[in-house]
Amino acid sequence: MADIPQHIAIIMDGNGRWAQEKGLRRIVGHREGIKRVKEIVRVAAGLGIKVVTFFAFSTENWVRPKKEIDMLMRSLSHFLDREIKELDKNNIKFMAIGRDEPIPKYIQDKIRQAENKTKDNSGLIVVLALNYGARQELVDAAKKFAASVIKDEANLEDLDIQSFSRYLYTAGLPDPDLLIRTSGEMRLSNFLLWQLSYAELYFPKKYWPDFKIQDLEMAIRVYQKRQRRFGAVLSK
């Protein structure tokens, strides 16, 4: 494919509803959703995409039933145990963005280990947004910058869009070109609000467990047909 988006961000919506509509437990939907993550990662690497960011767990998701949260944490733990070796084998770099607390300590440790194991890989970057909220990210970035000014490591007058981006969780990564949110919901839900300023948005109606390789390819084709002007007027 030509004109491949360099960074795709994905809100994996609809796992629970997919399961409930089939008369299954919500947990089954989350497990099926993990399979889609592995498929998308494999295909994205082959297409030449540079970064894929998955919105796995928001700062607001802690209000869900404890049983469901515990299952999600166990599933994440198993993913880190089983899949990181495969990612490393395929030259894929793993990153997590978001706040550490109150993620269980054993999960935090596995995340750091996975990041360290793959930090020198030069292929696709897989980013997991975990315990992530964009408003919190902006507050944390502002605090980091203020601390730098207090330490005389930065000047207030020098702050601009580019320099502020270096204080975000996503520092060093390109902004997403394409956002995909499954399930037909058309909201950003506090996800990458700064970074998605100029992204193309795509809202397929399928639930995430039904979002297959051909659906990713369709999303990319839709992206390729759009004109990204960034405020300018394209010449005819």
Mean pLDDT: 93
DSSP summary: helix tally: 7
Largest sheet: 6 strands, parallel
Give the number of domains: 1
Percent strand: 5-15%
Radius of gyration: 18 Å
Topology:
Layout lengths: L6 E5 L3 H7 L4 H22 L3 E8 L7 H24 L3 E5 L7 H14 L6 E8 L1 H17 L10 H5 L12 E4 L18 E3 L10 H13 L11
Parallel strand pairs: 1-2, 1-5, 2-4, 3-4, 5-6
Helix pairs in contact: 1-2, 2-3, 3-4
Descriptive tags:
single chain; 236 residues; alpha/beta; Undecaprenyl pyrophosphate synthetase
Quick gist of this model?
With 236 residues, the protein is an alpha/beta fold. The protein contains 7 helices and 6 strands, in the order βααβαβαβααββα.
What does this structure look like?
With 236 residues, this protein is of the alpha/beta class. It has one domain (7-133, 175-224): Undecaprenyl pyrophosphate synthetase. The chain contains seven helices and six strands. A six-stranded parallel sheet has the order 3-4-2-1-5-6, with helices on both faces. Helix 1 packs across helix 2, helix 2 packs parallel to helix 3 and helix 3 (66-89) runs parallel beside helix 4 (105-118). The chain is globular, with a radius of gyration of 18 Å. The mean pLDDT is 93.
